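Work package 3, deliverable 3.1, input record:
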Amino acid sequence: MTVRTRFAPSPTGMLHIGGVRTALFCWLYARRHGGTFILRIEDTDRERSTDEAIQVIIDGMDWLGLKPDEGPVFQTKRYDRYREVIGQLLASGHAYHCWCTKEELDQMRAEQQARKEKPRYDGRCRHGRALREGITPVVRFRNPTEGSVVVRDVVHGPIEFQNAELDDLIILRSDGNPTYNFCVAVDDWDMRITHVIRGDDHINNTPRQLNMLQAMGAEPPVYAHLPMILGPDGTKLSKRHGAVSVLEYRNAGFLPEALLNYLGRLGWSHGDQEIFSLEEMTRLFDLDDVNKSASALNPDKLAWTNQQHMMKRPGAALAPLLAERLQALGVDTAGVDLAAIADAQKERAKTLLEMAENSRFFFADPQAYDPKAAAKNLTAETAPVLERVRAVLDSLEAWGAAGIHAALEALAAELGVGLGKVAQPVRVALAGGPVSPPIDATVAILGRETVLRRLDRALGVARSG
RNA sequence: GUCCCCAUCGUCUAGAGGCCUAGGACAUUACCCUUUCAAGGUAACGACACGGGUUCGAAUCCCGUUGGGGACGCCA
């Protein structure tokens, strides 16, 4: 049996990272077993579905590299098929028309709640009802009233539901649109889905879907309900928590492999390992290792994970992404070795955005010096040192980090001071502040002309300060 | 309210009855390394929700309590 999984988002909001984690596990499981991963867009709610949301789903998955093998399949394109199945269910008595109005149903629910009962359709149209003028009936699924349904869930184990707890759900609205639970059942069947991997907020839908599958004569898939992902404060994920949409993570400068690594470690683990490449995850992933409890997002750990992945990438593989972030900040990146900058900066930034911000001084001379740093490093005492550095660098033959390092070290030795006494004034002169990559790399990247120019300017400040 | 799910450091997790004096990671704090900042290294802090069973032995199995989450739509 070939494994077939599906990721089935509804395009009503932005694709958030809880959805991404679901997509990841579906993708991973399919990849791991040489199966097929399908993207299905559940857009039967025509009021709330938007093209923009569909685009975000597709762009987001594309960015992350979670490419579907089939799809996107749109449920709204399958209406003929749904109506066909509804016709069959009607004919076989597994479904019936219901003429209740919304007002009638609202009243019924209100009464039930007043009696502290679980609100549910009471089946008043179950055994036929006179056709009512001016009302287009809905179609309801005739759920069994006795016995129970057992969901065989690979992460939770068997879960039993009493049929008496379930009511007759609407499968076709009065406007002719089929509803979610029904479409899911038909689609999972038609698409020959073998493993339904989704959030555990769907556990309660599963017995209904199982009953419909049975009524249609379909073999049910295996279910795996994943624990929810909560916001950092342990409550349900919402816009309140800030970055929720995948694309926001891209814009904040996270690497796709890092986001996937972090999300993968939520609800899944492999011993003590924290850092995984996508390839490793694919090789190691198993539904047996998925745990049952919800997990809260930890922004610090996400940032750390991102840094770990940035350090794993060669600078050249970071350069184009760094360029995007710099351009977003309005920095002109022409003519500068971005790969070298990325290599120098990747272990001192948590995100590409932070890297870009830390790297601005590579592209423009400091407009002002950090007051504290200048007061300490651009002084009458350091001026002679800066002068010597200027002379040494001016006459240096081969421009390169190794040569620069050797030259500065020799100078420090000659002056009888530690390298720090030489490097720090130079750093402030070049970067405008007390922080930068190692001075040799910084000098090398900046280039002789820029370095000499900035030293001259700093010298002016040092002499007068 | 009814039904369903869940429960190990602040957070993510390891843990399949003895290997647990409960391990790792993020965060925090100290120290080391060091030309700054980082990165890296070492250490410290820090948890089995509670109560009953079962067992020679329970974080692990069972029951209850409490707490959290989800579902109960002509939403998905």
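The radius of gyration of chain A is 31 Å.
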